[in-house]
Write a structure and sequence with these properties.
It is built from six helices and 13 strands. It has three domains: 51 residues, RNA-binding S4 domain (Structural Genomics Hypothetical 15.5 Kd Protein In mrcA-pckA Intergenic Region, Chain A), CATH 3.10.290.10; 88 residues, 2-Layer Sandwich (Alpha-Beta Plaits), CATH 3.30.70; 77 residues, 2-Layer Sandwich (Alpha-Beta Plaits). Strands 5, 6, 7, 8, 9, 10, 11, 12 and 13 form a nine-stranded mixed β-sheet that branches. It has a four-stranded antiparallel β-sheet with strand order 2-1-3-4. By secondary structure, it is α+β, with helices and mostly antiparallel strands. Helices cover 20% and strands 25% of the residues. Strand 1 and strand 2 form a beta hairpin. The structure holds uracil.
Length: 229
């Protein structure tokens, strides 16, 4: 990671304070002063700040129940960030492994470990995401087969990967997909002449949503390991 990020992850300093200290020669990497904050450093390197050895905080792995009307962003925009009503510290260091729309609720996984989240979001890892979907019109009957075959969404060059549809009632279904194209679930139903009126993510891989709206918890070791390839 970049040296300024390493310093921030090891201290309570802001990014701009860390950069100033690095540029002023207060930071060494393997005993040599380094003044370029963009220098790449590894966890195993010996990094000091004003003579004190730094060690970055360990990676974090968090499950949250996203409320409607929040956005999967670190900062508030038109809607508040999903972090805004939580007490999660240093949320600026975290990212969301598979974002949900502002009006979508449910399970989000949050981390600062980019290798781990890649296994969740990259379609080649076939990590299942299960959505409970409310529809404006009753299911016609051919949707499950069409989703299994793959649907060519507007503006895309390749069809969606095979998806599984479980019909719970004429206007409520579970859809399992292994990729995360922009507005994918809404666009899939639009492509078969329907409209999503409620969308809630219940499961990612083996991890089920088990906290109330707006609440969060750390993942356990088994859950974390289940996403390692
Ligand atoms: N698909 C969508 O259309 N929206 C989401 O929030 C997630 C998946």
């Amino acid at each position: 990671m970049r040296l300024d990020k390493f310093v921030c992850k090891s201290t309570e300093l802001t990014r701009s304070d860390a950069i100033e200290l690095i540029q002023n020669g207060a930071v060494t990497v393997n005993d040599a002063i380094v003044t370029d904050e963009k220098t790449q450093v590894h966890e195993n390197n010996t990094v000091t700040l004003q003579g004190k050895r730094l060690s970055p905080r360990p990676f974090r792995y968090i499950l949250m129940h996203k409320p409607a009307g929040t956005i999967c962003s670190n900062i508030d925009e038109v809607y508040p960030s999903l972090f805004s009503a939580t007490n999660i510290e240093h949320s600026e260091e975290l990212h969301i492994a598979g974002r949900l729309d502002a009006d979508t609720t449910g399970l989000v996984l949050i981390t600062d470990d980019g290798h781990w989240s890649f296994n969740i979001t990259t379609p080649t890892q076939h990590c299942e995401k299960v959505y409970r979907v409310g529809l404006s019109r009753p299911i016609r009957g051919d949707e499950a087969e069409r989703f299994k075959q793959g649907i060519l969404l507007q503006g895309e060059s390749k069809p969606t990967l095979p998806a599984k549809l479980d019909v719970l009632s004429p206007q409520e279904v579970l859809l399992t997909i292994t990729e995360g194209k922009f507005h994918q679930v809404k666009r899939m139903f639009s492509a078969v002449g329907n409209r999503v009126v409620a969308l809630h993510r219940e499961r990612i891989g083996e991890v089920l949503l088990d906290v109330d709206t707006g609440e969060w918890r750390h993942l356990n070791d088994e859950e974390i390991a289940s996403f390692r390839s």
